[in-house]
Amino acid sequence: MNYRHHYHAGNFADVLKHAVLVRIVRAMQRKERGFLYVDTHAGRGRYDLESAARGDTLERKPEWPEGIGRLWDRTRLPDVLADYVAQVKAFDQKLGNLETTPRFYPGSPRLVRALARPQDRLSLFEKQHDEAGALRAEFARTSGVGIQSADGYAGLKGQLPPPEKRALVLIDPPFESKDEFAQVARAVGDALKRSPAATIVVWYPLTERARVDAFFADLTMLALPPTFTFELTVVGPLHPMKMKGSGLVVINPPWELDRELAPAGTWLAEILAQGQGGRAELRWLVRES
After folding, report:
1. What tens digit of pLDDT does each residue of 198-255 get?
2. pLDDT tens across 80-121, in order?
3. Is 193 helix (H, G, I), strand (E, B) or coil?
């Protein structure tokens, strides 16, 4: 596996994914009972935007200015985005950044851990050896967080159903494998057999529309519970940019999450656009009854 997320940390795809993740955690915490958060591809937990831009050997154009950078100094953000940006700023400042631009960006595990209550628990998987080591160091001496250097797809099976009877699963793979969509669909089906009421969030890139639509067709074969997709593109379909946007599949979404996300998506499509034709769309695959 060659993928290193720190090159992309804080980009437009992270903005979408992490803003929605924060909102879902908040929604799940409306109930007193705790829940298990499972991250199948957790990464390293935090990212230094300055060092990431340098790359391993050569200078790289940073991606965060077109993502979190466009939200950093804005006021009057939609509630969904205001909460997310506040969490990122709090993390950045906690690590000592005194500059007016972001330096330290929290990955999904860090965002969830910052919000977690004593009754909430995290189980993190990272297959890549170096990233898993960094993840362990990030959460050393942190209670309520379990870390395994293992395949998250396989590891997910042992996590569900959790003792808490409530689960939030994030499946956020690098999509380096040609059969990644198929692996995700199998993992989702297996997770739902074990925990039919689990909230499952799947991130996916928008590079080839046909592959994404085939993935949706595979999912609908699973007799899904209520499920919607939430997509953001920053350029139109004819633009030469390879990844034109990204999306999330949200299975068993918290009540009225769609109503909260739709206006935020419209706002993001305008603010994060990198060319003509960008848009946001929320579409139900299986509607709530």
Report:
1. 999 999 999 989 999 999 999 999 999 999 999 999 999 999 999 999 999 999 999 9
2. 999 999 999 999 999 999 999 999 999 999 999 999 999 999
3. helix
CA distance 22 to 73: 20
**Closest CA relative to residue 267, chosen from 108, 80, 101:** 80
- 91, 114 contact by CB (below 8 A): yes
Q: Which amino acid is at 123?
A: S
Do the Cβ atoms of 159 and 38 come closer than 8 Å? Answer: yes
**Active-site residue, 151 included:** no
- Please tell me whether residue 285 adopts helix, strand or coil conformation: strand
pTM above 0.85, yes or no: yes
Domains in the chain, start-ordered, CATH in brackets? 5-286 (3.40.50.150)
Catalytic residue among 172, 179, 213, 218: 172
